Amino acid sequence: MATGLDAPALAEFKLLRPAPGDANPSDPPGHGPRTAAFFDLDNTLIQGASLFHLARGLAAHRLLNGRDIARFGWGQLTFRVRGERHEQVESTRERALSFVAGRTADEMTDICHRIFDDYLERKIWPGTRALAQAHLNRGEPVWLLTAAPFELANIVAIRLGFTGALGTVAETVDGVYSGRICGDVLHGPAKGEAMRALAEREGYPLASCHAYSDSANDLPMLNSVGHPHAVNPDHKLRHYAQEQGWPVIDYRTGVRLMRIGLPGSAAVGATAGVVAAGAALRRAGRRREATDTIAG
User: Fold this and answer.
1) Contact predicate 64/99, CB 8 Å
2) Does residue 203 have a pLDDT over 60?
3) What Å distances lie between residue 113 and 106, 117, 120, CA to CA?
4) Pairing relation of β-strands 176-182 and 164-173?
């Protein structure tokens, strides 16, 4: 299975190389400058699905219409209630990347910076950010591993001071997106394989490393490290983590309420919010078009 690490486009994945050197004998087990921490993005570091926020940003820049944003919104709702599903991730990532066909990589990077400022920054789970910062404070490399487009993952990593990021790579031809993906969507077994390749390249002993995820789809990653952590876990991961004695952290009191008591009304309310957002975006688009016509 291709990991994407072999693709030329991934040569820039590493943002900062950790200082060389072996772990200090006084470092506690599972910590030290060669002990890396690997974080999933969706519902682990941020609330919900990053692709929904990417869709909002693309819609704001007229790259998606109201129907598209509503479809992404429904995917966001099911993600929050039922957790991540492999087939949903595959189709959503591929659809999102197809939307940028014909756009330049520089344009996409600029949009992703704005998406982080406008949407993602306030969706970061403070607790997960604190966990990542604790690793950074100890001088430990912190990597973001996600099926989200690399451009978005890279910007999140830069803004949070992480060591680097791995994400799904969209093919570019002469700096313009073709609408195709290089290699695999970085999800499930592909993510685990990419993490292991990264650890081998950087010299991280996986038995001492940490990994954080919300999804049972990331068991190939979690089972590869000595210190796995379940964060906002789906039902399958929660059960597996409890059986294995892994740490389990959950910040989602609202999701618990939806699951145990009010799924119908919650779904109606969330869907109404998505429809309203789509309508607002369409109205904003019409206002901008009218302004452009007058200005022209």
Assistant:
1) yes
2) yes
3) 11, 6, 10
4) antiparallel
What pLDDT, on a 0 to 100 scale, did the predictor assign at position 1?
38
CB 32 within 8 A of CB 17: no
The answer to whether 41 and 50 are in contact (CB under 8 A) is: yes
According to DSSP, residue 118 is labeled I
User: Which of 102, 123, 113, 190 minimizes the C-alpha distance to 153?
Assistant: 113
Six-digit token pair at 207? 């038995």
pLDDT, tens digit, 9 for 90 and up, residues 235-292: 999 999 999 999 999 998 754 433 433 333 333 333 333 333 344 444 444 444 444 4
Cα 158 to chain centroid distance, Å, stands at: 14
Instruction: List, for residues 3-46, the tens digit of each pLDDT value.
Output: 345 443 333 343 433 333 343 434 455 567 789 999 999 999 99
Q: Are 148 and 93 in contact (CB under 8 A)?
A: yes
Residue 178 CB: number of other CB atoms within 10 A?
Answer: 16
Encoded tokens for 221: 């990653």
- Please give the distance of CA 38 from its chain centroid, rounded to a whole number: 12
Which contacts (CB < 8 Å, 24+ apart) does range 65-71 have? 65/282, 66/278, 66/279, 66/281, 66/282, 67/278, 68/99, 69/274, 69/277, 69/278, 69/281, 70/274, 70/275, 70/278
**What's the rounded Cα separation, in Å, for the pair 90 and 186?**
9
Q: What pTM, to 2 d.p., does this model score?
A: 0.71
Active site residue ranges: 40, 42
Token couple for 45: 């570091």
Cα–Cα dist 27/114, whole Å? 39
Under DSSP, the state recorded for 18 is P
